């Protein structure tokens, strides 16, 4: 299945009427911005950054191949939007690597044009951007655009001595909303392995993570759905015998994250259950105004988990086909809608709910 993931992504993008392009002189991963290491838990970690020198935003997909003794690990990942003349860092953990000396091939990059209404958020490079003695950095971002940004995150390439690229970091704060002209503080911590080696950070800001369309083959038919996460989904398959969706989700960051999966509604009585490593976990199910189900659940920090979602109808083939076609004609649901759901969820937790703990 790993070899087919990138094919699925490309087919979806063609279906959306977008032109897929391979890596070029304008979109690539520089040789000095790709690396790997074993983290403190012994997990093989690939870090890097896709550089966008185009004059328009892009949505890049990277394919990573690792020679692990006598087997090849091959997986692809769609990254958030990379704005014009900006980088989009990535950090991916591969707990399936078993050898001590794996060989990382240079990732291949494909991309499509991104949304033209991207938010103009910048890091404030002045004396407020500080590298602290424990290796972490803190500073401010400002929204220079004319519209509100949601789900804002700051990523950074971490450099050590002689400008060596050593890690990728992500802001720990939950910046749910940033109004035009507003400033907010952020902080980024490196992997503890490199805390004493940090020299400086190169920071990049992105707004809300994109909603990624994909599909699986279900009962010999195509089943379209979408997801949104700060991590990465791979090995997506549908179990026809159990009417369940299976996949692996990876969260490389040292803080909790989430997955929000959108399914076309098959019936109003559907009840989805999320299992992590065959154990039921807490999740939130809601329905939006387009009659799309949203299934939301948390990811543990720096984790790789096998996820199974049950609750699909086993006798709705006609509704499934019609629902999938109309579902894709709707286009992308505004990011703000998803963000509002997450904000409400967090407020419920703050009031004493035990959900997702």
Largest sheet: 5 strands, antiparallel
Number of strands: 27
What is the string of helix and strand elements? HEEEEEEEEEEEEEEEEEEEEEEEEEEEHH
**Mean pLDDT across all amino acids:** 82
**Poorly predicted runs:** 1-18, 316-347, 349-357
SS strand fraction: over 45%
Q: Could you say which overall geometry the principal axes of the C-alpha atoms support?
A: globular
Question: Would you give an account of this structure?
Answer:
With 357 residues, this protein is mainly beta. The chain has 3 domains: 112 residues, Sandwich (Immunoglobulin-like), CATH 2.60.40; 86 residues, Sandwich (Immunoglobulin-like); 139 residues. The strands form 6 sheets. Strands 1, 5, 6, 8 and 9 form a 5-stranded antiparallel beta sheet that branches. The longest helix has 16 residues. It is globular and about 60 Å long. The two termini are 32 Å apart. 34% of the residues are buried.
What's this entry about, in short?
The protein has 357 residues and is mostly beta strands. Helix content is 11%, strand content 47%.
Name the descriptors.
Immunoglobulin-like; five-stranded antiparallel beta sheet; globular; 27 strands; mainly beta; about 350 residues
């Amino acid at each position: 299945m790993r070899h087919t993931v990138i094919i699925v992504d490309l087919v979806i993008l063609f279906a959306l009427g977008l032109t897929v392009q391979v890596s070029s002189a304008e979109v690539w991963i520089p040789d000095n911005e790709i690396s790997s290491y074993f983290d403190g838990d012994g997990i093989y970690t690939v870090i890097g950054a896709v550089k966008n020198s185009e004059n328009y935003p892009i949505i890049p997909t990277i394919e990573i191949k690792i020679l692990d003794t006598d087997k090849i690990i091959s997986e692809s990942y769609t990254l958030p939007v990379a704005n014009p003349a900006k980088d989009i860092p990535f950090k991916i953990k591969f707990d399936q690597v078993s050898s001590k000396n794996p060989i990382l091939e240079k990732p291949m990059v494909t991309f499509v044009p991104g949304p033209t209404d991207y938010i103009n958020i910048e890091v404030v490079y002045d004396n407020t951007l500080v590298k602290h003695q424990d290796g972490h950095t803190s500073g401010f971002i400002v929204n220079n655009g004319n519209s509100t940004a949601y789900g804002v995150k700051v990523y950074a390439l971490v450099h050590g001595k002689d400008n060596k690229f050593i890690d990728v970091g992500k802001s720990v704060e939950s910046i749910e909303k940033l109004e035009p002209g507003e400033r907010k503080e952020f902080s980024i911590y490196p992997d503890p392995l490199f805390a004493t080696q940090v020299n400086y950070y190169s920071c990049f800001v992105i707004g809300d993570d994109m909603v990624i369309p994909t599909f699986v083959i279900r009962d010999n038919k195509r089943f379209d759905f979408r997801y949104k996460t700060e991590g990465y989904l791979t090995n997506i398959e549908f179990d026809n015998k159990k009417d369940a969706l299976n996949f692996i989700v990876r969260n490389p960051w040292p803080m909790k994250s989430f997955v929000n999966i959108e399914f076309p509604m098959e019936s109003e009585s559907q009840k989805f259950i999320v299992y992590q490593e065959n154990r039921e976990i807490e999740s939130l199910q809601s329905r939006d105004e387009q009659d799309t189900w949203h299934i939301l659940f948390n990811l543990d920090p720096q984790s790789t988990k096998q996820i199974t979602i049950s609750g699909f109808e086993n006798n709705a083939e006609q509704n499934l086909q019609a629902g999938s076609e109309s579902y894709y004609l709707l286009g992308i649901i505004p990011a703000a809608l998803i963000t509002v759901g997450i904000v409400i969820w967090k407020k419920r937790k703050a009031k004493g709910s035990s959900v997702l703990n």
